[in-house]
Design goal:
37% of the residues lie in helices and 13% in strands. The protein is built from 15 helices and eleven strands. The chain has a five-stranded antiparallel beta sheet with strand order 5-9-8-7-6. α4 packs across α5. The chain is of the alpha+beta class. A hairpin with a 5-residue loop joins β10 and β11.
Amino acid sequence: MEIAPPPLDQDACYRAVLTRDARFDGRFFGCVKTTGIYCRPVCPARTPLRQNMIFVVTAAAAEEAGFRACLRCRPETAPDMGAWRGTSSSVSRALALIEAGALDAGAGHGGTTEALAARLGMGDRHLRRLFRQHLGAAPVSVAQTRRVLLAKTLLHQTDLSMSEVALASGFGSVRRFNETFQALYGRPPSSLRRGGERSGPTGGIALSLPYRPPYDWDGMIAALTGRGDAVEGGRWFRSLSLAIDGTEGQVSVGHRTEGQLNLRVEVADLRALPGVLARVRRVFDLSADPEAIGRDLSADPLLAPLVAARPGLRLPGDWIDTHVDAPNDRLADDALTLRAEGWRPWRAYAERHLRLGGIIITEDDHGRCAA
C-alpha cells in the first residue's frame, strides 16, 4: 500500500532554518526565490526573509523548479533523507535502481523511465505519478540531480579529470556534463573544483559518505564480521567483480568522523562507480533516520528500553538485493507478524533490537504476541 507523505509545513521549515537545526538536515531543502539558490537547513549563509523562501522535500524537486545548489552548504553532503521514506516501497526500489545508474547513459537497462517502470512491474505513468507524490520531481530529474551531486562530490574530493568525473557520475559525454553544469550554475564544472589534498586514480578514489548520527559503528562491524564479510582493523573490504559490479577492483569502508563514513574504491571502469556507491550505502544503511525509528518504535514498551540502549542501530544490508519489499520493513520471523504490524514501517529494526536484546516473541493460543 502506498501512503502519501505529509505535506511540508512551510512555516515550521522556516523556523528550522532560522535556528539552523541539524535535526532537519536532509529532510527538506529551502529555495530562495530572489537568488535562485537552494540550501540545506544548516546553511551558514544569512537567512532570507520568509516571503522569499519555499521549501521542498528533495534536491531534485528544487533543481527541477529551476534552483541551483548552494556552493556554501553543498546539498550533496547532506544525509540521504526524505519525507517519503517508509511510505512507498515502489519509490524506494526505483530510487535504488536510479542510484545504481538505471537511467544513466549506457546503463544497460534501456536508460528510460519506461524501462525502469517495466523492471518494477508498473506503467511509466504510474511511476511518474508516485515520484511526483513522494519526491516532488520526475524520475529523470531525480536521476540528473543524483548525477550532478555525485559529480560535485568528485570535483571537491578527488583529482579525477573532467572527463573521468563525467564518466564516473553517469553522464553520457563530457559535452553533456559541461552543458548541464553551465545551465545549472552558469559556469563550467572545472570552476567548482577546490584546492587541497585529494585522491586520484592511482591510489583509488577516496570519498566521504554522509549519514545522520548516531551510528552504532561497532555494532555494524560486528554484524558484518558475524556473517562472514571481510573486516580487518575495524575496516570493511570487498572485492569487485565484472559479473556483479560491472568492473573489477576493490572497495573498503571505515569510520573516523561522526556523521560520515570514509570510503576508498578502486575500479577498472569508472562507469561502475554509481552502482558501487549505491551498494555501499545499502550495506551500511546510510539512509536510515534514527530519530524517526527511535520515536516510532519507542511507543512499544517492550522496545523502548532496547532502542534507548542502541540509538544508532543500523541494519547490515546485502550487496546484491533482489527483494521486493523495503529492507527496513522486512520480517524474518513469521512469529512476530501480529505484534509487528504496529512497528511498521520499521519492523526490521524492531526485530533486530529484540534479537540483540535476547528477547523472543511468541504467539499465545489466542494469536496474540507476547514476550
